[in-house]
Amino acid sequence: MENGIDSFVSLSHWPYAGSFGFNTDIFATNPINLSVVLVVLIYFGKGVLNDLLDNRKQRILSTIRNSEELRKGAIEQLERARAHLRKVEIEADEYRMNGYSEIERQKENLINATNERLKRLENNKNETLHFEQQKAIHQVRQRVFQQALQGALGILNSCLNSELHFRTIRANIGILRTMQEITD
């Protein structure tokens, strides 16, 4: 190794320009070739490399800015969505409470209407029963009266002679005339 360093440093070991050939000493040629390539790459490639790095840096920065803007937009949308959700939940609670109270109110109205209808039906039933009772009583009275009248007429016809019959008719006509004069 020391031999390779010595040959690199000492110029006496290098062949003169008049002769051309391959230097097979690998330790002497590689560092020189590498240093030349590196110097050329650094000198000529510095601008290209700087441009590439600057472009990459700008793309990364713009991506970061876009990501930040998207994040801010997403946060704003999330906040709006949360506010809308709160509003909808409040409205849902109000609808639920109003719905329950409306259901209770309708239930009470239905119960009251049913009770009123039952009362009317009960009254109609009682009126119908009372009417039918009065009708039955009236029919019984008419039959009793007709039977009594027929019985009385039968008794009168068998007991009365024509003179008594005429007197009874005249007395009844007189009673009817006095009743008519009283009413007029």
TrEMBL record:
Species assigned in the record: Orchidantha maxillarioides
InterPro entries assigned: ATP_synth_b/b'su_bac/chlpt (IPR002146)
Location(s), subcellular: Membrane
Lineage start: Eukaryota, Viridiplantae, Streptophyta, Embryophyta, Tracheophyta
MF terms in GO: proton transmembrane transporter activity
Family in the record: Belongs to the ATPase B chain family.
GO cellular component: proton-transporting ATP synthase complex
PANTHER family linked to this entry: ATP SYNTHASE SUBUNIT B, CHLOROPLASTIC
Broad class of the protein's primary localization: membrane
Its job: F(1)F(0) ATP synthase produces ATP from ADP in the presence of a proton or sodium gradient. F-type ATPases consist of two structural domains, F(1) containing the extramembraneous catalytic core and F(0) containing the membrane proton channel, linked together by a central stalk and a peripheral stalk. During catalysis, ATP synthesis in the catalytic domain of F(1) is coupled via a rotary mechanism of the central stalk subunits to proton translocation.
Gene Ontology biological-process annotations: proton motive force-driven ATP synthesis
Coiled-coil regions, chain positions: 64-124
Protein's gene: atpF
Record-annotated membrane-spanning stretches: 32-49
Keywords carried by this UniProt record: ATP synthesis, CF(0), Chloroplast, Coiled coil, Hydrogen ion transport, Ion transport, Membrane, Plastid, Thylakoid, Transmembrane, Transmembrane helix, Transport
Membrane topology: Single-pass membrane protein
Protein name, as recorded: ATP synthase CF0 subunit I
